[in-house]
Design a protein that fits this description.
Layout lengths: L1 H9 L1 H30 L6 H36 L5 H28 L7 H7 L2 H15 L3
Length: 150
């Protein structure tokens, strides 16, 4: 296991750079998908435009969100291992927010499936508010990682 620690220690700047890159991809996807839902809400269920939005949303989930989230988790856990951050309060708070963002992504996927079947349970205003979740979470995570307040 010490060989793994040594390897990861040498690779730390690369792990960190890759982690930040995939965080950017993930958050970008979490910003765009609810915006797509706002536009999708305005379409007539079953129309060609409705089907086009469903396809776009599916691509965002499969091509951007799922791979980016997986890489964020893998690289983030590797960074936690390298830096031995497991017992630090800021890391626990960050981890809780990342779990929350992962759950938010799951909720977005479920909501997209409802939209694809013609259901529109939320109004546009609620979706616009939901679009703020990743931005607020990201701002808090950045402060936790940079400032390490506790």
């Amino acid at each position: 296991m010490s060989d793994l620690s040594a390897l990861l220690g040498v690779a730390y700047p690369w792990l960190k750079a890759a982690h930040i890159t995939f965080v950017i991809f993930w958050i970008a996807g979490l910003f765009i998908l609810p915006r797509f839902y706002v536009y999708h809400h305005e379409t007539t269920p079953g129309s060609a435009e409705d089907r086009a939005w469903t396809e776009r949303e599916d691509r965002v989930r499969k091509i951007i969100l799922a791979p980016a989230m997986i890489m964020v988790w893998v690289l983030g856990l590797a960074l936690g291992y390298v830096t031995d951050s497991w017992m630090q309060g800021w890391f626990h708070a960050k981890l809780l927010l990342v779990v929350g963002l992962s759950a938010y992504q799951g909720w977005l996927a479920a909501y997209g499936k409802r939209l694809a079947t013609g259901k529109r349970p939320l109004d546009n205003k609620t979706l616009r508010i939901m679009n703020e979740v990743p931005g607020v979470a990201t701002a808090i995570i950045v402060v936790l990682v940079i400032v390490k307040p506790f």
